[in-house]
Amino acid sequence: LYWQMCFNLMGSSNSTVELIGKAMDEREVVFTSSVNTSFFAVKTTLCCLFGRYELGAHLAIEKNHKRNLNIIGGGFSGLMFWFHRSLCLYAMARKIKTKKKQYIAQAKRIHKELTNSLKNKNPNILHYVSLLNAEKAALAQKKNQDVKKLYNDAITMSARGGYAHDAALAQERFADFLICSEGDLQE
User: Fold this and answer.
1) How many helices (H) and strands (E) does the chain have?
2) Which residues contact 153 (CB under 8 A, 6 or more apart)?
3) How far is it, in rounded angstroms, from Cα 19 to Cα 16?
4) Among candidates 134, 177, 140, which has minimal Cα distance to 156?
C-alpha cells in the first residue's frame, strides 16, 4: 500500500487516488481488517493531497472501518491520517450543504483530539492543528482578516518546521478560501 502511495505521489502511476500501478492493484487486494485500516488511511491521505475532498470525506464517514481506528496514541503516520481525514471533512463541510452537520461533527471531534495531543506535549502536529484551526474559522465564517491570519500562520509553521508539502497544502486551502469568500484571484 505505502509503496504504491509513494508511486502515486511521485507521478509514476497513471492514477492519483486509486492504488493501481507498479507496486499493487487495489482491485486485487484481499482485505483483512489490518489491510482495510491501512487502505483507508492511505486512500484518505491521497484524496486530501490530490484535492479529492469529496472522496476523502466519503471514506471518513464510512462505518465499517471505525472500529479499527483509534486516534489516541499511535505513531506519526496515524496522526497524519487523522489530520488528512479532518481536513477532507472540513473542506466538504464548506463546499456541500447536504451533509454539513455530519462532516462538521466528525471534523471537530478529530480536531479536538489532535489539539489535546498537542496540549499533551506532541510538538509534531502543531502545523496540523494550525491548519485545522484556519479551516474551522473559515467554516464558521469568522472575519476574513482573522481567517487570513490563521492560514498565514499555518503556512509559516509548516514551512519553518520543514513540512514543505503541508505548507503547500495550507496555501492551496488558503487559496480556495480566498476564491470562495472574496473571489480574490490576485492574493
Assistant:
1) 8, 0
2) 130, 134
3) 8
4) 134
Kindly report, residue by residue over 20-47, the tens digit of the pLDDT. Answer: 888 888 888 777 766 777 888 888 999 9
Exposed e or buried b per residue across 51-61, where buried means at least 16 C-beta atoms within 10 angstroms of its C-beta: bbbebbbebbb
The model's pTM is: 0.84
User: What are residue 20's DSSP bridge partners?
Assistant: 25
Q: Is 43 exposed, middle or buried (0-12, 13-18, 19+ CB in 10 A)?
A: buried
The answer to whether the CB of 127 falls within 8 A of the CB of 158 is yes
Which residues on neighbouring strands pair with residue 25, listed in sequence order?
20
Amino acid in position 31: F
Contact by Cβ (8 Å): 90, 107 = yes
Amino acid at 111: H
CB neighbour list of residue 79: distance below 8 Å, 6 or more residues apart: 114, 117, 122, 124, 125, 128
Phi, psi dihedrals of residue 20, rounded to the nearest 5°: -130, 125
Instruction: Reply yes or no on whether the pLDDT at 58 is more than 80.
Output: yes
Q: What gap in Å lies between CA 109 and CA 172, rounded to an integer?
A: 23
Query: Cα 30 to the chain's mean position, in Å?
Result: 26
pLDDT digits (tens, 9 = 90+) for 158-173: 999 999 999 999 999 9
